[in-house]
Amino acid sequence: MSEQSHIGVIGVGWVGLVTASCFADLGHQVTAVDIDAAKVDALRAGDAPIHEPGIADLLERNRERLRFTTEMAEVLDAARLLFCCVDTPPTYSGDADLSRVQAVVSQLSSDRKHVLVMKSTVPAGTGAAIRRETADLAYVSCPEFLKEGSAVDDFMRPDRVVIGADPGDTRAADEVEEVYRPLGAEIVRTDVASAEMIKLAANAFLATKISFINEIANVCEEVGADVIEVARGMGLDKRIGSSFLRPGIGYGGSCFPKDVSALKMLAGNTGYHFQLLTSVIEVNELQKRRVVGKLMKHLGPLRGKTVALLGLAFKPNTNDMRDAPSLILAPRLLAEGAVVRGWDPVALEEAQQALRGVELKETLLDALKDADAAVIVTEWDELAGLLAPELRAAMRTPFLVDGRNLLDPDAARAAGYVYESIGRAAHDLDSLPETEEPETKLRR
After folding, report:
1. Which pLDDT belongs to residue 272?
2. Is 36 exposed, middle or buried (0-12, 13-18, 19+ CB in 10 A)?
3. What CATH number has the domain bearing residue 113?
4. Residue 373 covered by a domain
């Protein structure tokens, strides 16, 4: 297969659009298909339907090499390698919903003309099941390891490329390896089931690190330790490493919650109880709710209090609201009777659909005006502006919960905030200034 080969991409969500755009940037002709006609029309016009750094530039630079369609037949006619990038959301049981994958498989011929390259995250055993259904279809597992907010860079500079194929599909695996070879990453060749497990195991391990450091942060608050220093000391141990040791209010997004749950259910379906992942999930869910406890500890009953949630997407540099902590925080605060405002630099449109009852504000100043408290939910760079005097002065009571440990505590307190973070000592509440209305005083 030559460097200028034609590649097909099925599904142009985050993974599919990044995959299609990056392959085009590597010199390939790419035809991408999606069932969402509005999305396809937008992409044909050069408009990216997602907020992802670098995507808009790739679309503009590679217009001649990118083709978007709603017709599967156009992809089948154009390309041999078909990268399946459809969504596999969790079902109510926690298992992965493979209906979209099955819909793709049902449309493929079994004449070995095509190679189905599975980038969608699927449970181990999915590839074997597909091969049993379509014995003549060449099948390769090539899981994605893209982080939203840095997906283009992750694709172009991967840590590794995992390619899983069974003995009968060695030629197909060679073709997939050839298109990835220009990236210069280590190629991990393995069987299909192991490739499928690598993706799930990697995400489950990273989620475990996040839940672990959040548990450590909670203990640090009780014993007077500083979790930032603890994490730094831990991370310098090469056996541990510093990545994913940032405490906060829990993980979210389209991958970690889904993949951790899917691996737990995959194990359970075999009769094995994955106790560790059960705890990881529980810790993550409780961590999101600890913020409400912090607010009530200082503000008392939240009925009638105004709380500003700063950042609504699950992480910065994306407008993705899937499993965002704000989706837990906002309903909990509303249930306590609070008035809830929300601000995000790019995800307000998505939040409008996901956060019913929340007053969405386009500026930080509007979100903070006369607020009794503010919570940093997503670590957007723009939130460094909270140290500006006019933002602090806009609040009725200057209570700030830094759910991402974004700000320097001394700087925040010097700016006039009563500042609490995750896993670090709280403000000395005896120094808090009085407010005009007794019911809005912070508890001492």
Report:
1. 92
2. middle
3. 3.40.50.720
4. yes
pLDDT at 78: 94
Q: Is residue 351 part of a domain?
A: yes
CA angle 406, 228, 281 (to 5 degrees): 80
Q: State the residue for tokens 């978007």.
A: 68
* pLDDT for the residue numbered 440: 34
Q: How far apart are CA 305 and CA 224, in angstroms?
A: 29
Same structural domain, 44 and 154: yes
Q: Which two tokens stand for residue 320?
A: 């993705």
- Give the whole-angstrom CA distance, residue 284 versus residue 278: 10
Q: Which two tokens stand for residue 225?
A: 């330790």
Q: Rounded distance, CA 172 to CA 178, Å?
A: 10
Does residue 432 carry a pLDDT above 60? no
H or E, element range at 228:
helix 227-235
Together in a domain, 181 and 266: no
Looking at residue 427, what is its pLDDT? 53
Instruction: Provide the residue range defining the domain that includes 319.
Output: 191-444
Does this model's pTM top 0.85?
yes
The amino acid that residue 35 corresponds to is: I
> Are residues 86 and 179 part of one domain?
yes
Closest CA to 378 of 343, 336, 333: 343
Examine the fold and report which residue of 151, 168, 190 is the final residue of a domain before the chain moves on: 190
Residue position matching structure tokens 């050839």 = 178
Q: Is residue 39 part of a domain?
A: yes
Please list the active-site residues.
Answer: 255
Least confident interval from 94-98, 341-345, 371-375: 94-98
| Residue 2 reports pLDDT greater than 60 | no
Residue with the two structure tokens 């840590």: 159
- Among 130, 163, 190, the domain boundary falls at 190
For residue 1, tell me if it sits in a domain.
no
Structural domains counted in the chain: 2
Cα 331 to Cα 324: distance, rounded to the nearest angstrom: 12
pLDDT for 346? 95
What mean pLDDT comes out for the span 405-412? 96
Query: Residue for token digits 């090499």?
Result: 65
Task: Note the pLDDT of residue 225.
Answer: 96
Mean pLDDT of 226-240: 97
Number of Cβ within a 10 Å radius of residue 70:
13
